Amino acid sequence: MPRTSGPRPRKALGQHFLWDTGVLADIASAVRVPAGGFVLEIGAGTGQLTAALLERSHEVWAVEIEERLLPHLRHRFRGEPRFHLLHGDARDMDLAGLLPPGRPFAACGNLPYFAANPIIRRLLEREPRPTEAVVMVQREVGRELAAAPGDASLLAISVQVYATAEVLFDVAPEAFDPPPAVVSSVVRLTLRATPLVPPARNEAFFRLVSNTFRNPRKQIHNSLARGTWLPPRGAAEALEAAGIAPTRRAETLTVEDWLRLLDACEAIAPRA
Prior knowledge:
It contains ten helices and nine strands. The protein is of the alpha/beta class. The chain folds into two domains: 11-191, Vaccinia Virus protein VP39 (Rossmann fold, 3-Layer(aba) Sandwich), CATH 3.40.50.150; 199-271, rRNA adenine dimethylase, C-terminal domain (Helicase, Ruva Protein, domain 3, Orthogonal Bundle). Strand 2, helix 2 (48-55) and strand 3 (60-64) form a beta-alpha-beta unit. It is elongated, with a radius of gyration of 21 Å.
């Protein structure tokens, strides 16, 4: 018997509808909606989490990509003035033209595993940005998002520029219909008032990090020399100027380390 009302999940789309009322309540309770603000729900599905958010008197702007779910959502929440439905792909929606202007908001959602990374990047990198995002992702991705220096990946660095991340709790496969083959985690991303990397330096910063992260477990001297165009001995000189030991690995560097290294590389490169 299906555990969720409404349309059935589509395997081809990787859909797993969350039905466990305890987990739904925990997610809704974890969302800290700013004063005078609302909730942006990513992937409303059949409206299970939507209902839990509305029960807490939140105004909900729900995004759903699949057309077949729209009539169900409109019918389920008919007559509910706090519910607003948006049809589109959360990976590339122009939210600036759809959400109420000037009002703060928090985001939440049970993100499709295959689309979690681009959705998170959209929320972090483009305006309007939420004050926080409480999202469910695959457990391994959740741990990666919240990784500290020493275990940081390119994804972790990308998140740390814009937000702090913490894993709130794990969710067993049995909480979904149908159960996925993996454990999930609910993660809170609290956005920074100002990103750690100035917008004008974004492109150069992420080019340096991504090129050097191709071999994250190699010593940073070797990774930098192979991934970045510098004159002979430029990698060693840049690391010394940035105060970074050449034996460290890329995964141990903080955002501040990368910014100092970027400064040093840019100072050296023009001399070649």
